[in-house]
Fold this sequence. Notes:
The chain is α/β, with parallel strands linked by helices. 43% of the residues lie in helices and 18% in strands.
Amino acid sequence: MLRRTLAALAAAALLATPAFALDAGAYKVGFVTDNTGPLAFAGMSFSRGAELAAAQISAGGYMGIGTKLELVEKEGAGDAARSIQSYNQLIADRSVLATSCCILSPIAGALKPIALNNKVPLVIYGATAPGLPSLPYVYSVTGLPGPAEVAMSKHIAAQAKPQTVAYFVLSDNEAFQARFKASQAAMEAAGAKTVGVVNVLSADTDFTAPATQAIALKPDLMMVYTTQSPAAGIVAAVRARGWTGMMSANDAISPAAVFKKIGPPLAGVPFPVNFSPDASETPKAKGFIEAYTAKHGSAPDLYSAQGYTAIWLIAQGLKSLPGKPTREALATALSKITVLEHDVYGGLPITGGQAETRYTLFLNWTADGKITAWKP
């Protein structure tokens, strides 16, 4: 009787243990940060999200019994040469199985061929230029420019019914050119006429002349498609010149740091996001928000959500592998992922290495610094 019982327990133990499980131990992921330099306002959020993901993956044994995920961070400072140097240092360490990087699309584009030539998985957490993913080695968890802008444009057109639109656009940024074109097509399809396009540069700091130019066009709506600093500066300049008409912007104005800098002029300016601590309601989103807030004393933003997601994607690939995997084996595993398991967006399918956000939130700042659902 005892022998049969022991045999049954042994069989149960074998069934409970995966036949092909990741070996116990620490698995390293290289992470190029932008925690200093001109992008530090966003870089810190990306890094903190990634660090939280690594801590949760390790503490919960997500990848298997006795496994941990270790981030190896190298500073890029938003500079191409420094980012390339840091990335080369990471991939020279053969214990680093995968890498993650890049807020700026040109830097992501520079690191992509290095990843491909060295056959090391690279998950891009911030850059938005189309065409960056390349299976089986390069992936992006950042939604492509276009879908959110189209959704926002259709929503504004339906709710506010503007007849004329003027646009502020970065003339030296292909990703924001794509966002603008997608939005313009949607607005014109809804019957809103384009009365002018005001071009600005990423390095511009004085927006008095562009604001004056746009106001002179007398549009029903001004739409802003620029990176964070120009977007905030444009809104402030337009409002400072007394224009009280409707404006909209992109997710660049969503972080709390932007409102802290600009304040009430941002009130009522709608923007589309796929994650917000004030509006994301899924259980995994709430768990992420609570854990991040407890650790850092402030709520996460869309940037920290992207850094968080990049590391969970890599962990999901590692979880599916047996023994001690190689970089090539991990790349193959990542190429087979079509849906992210640990998802704070309410659905994040991955096609051809590119994440595709399904849901768009339409939000705006209030005058007292809160985020709420936008209503015209």
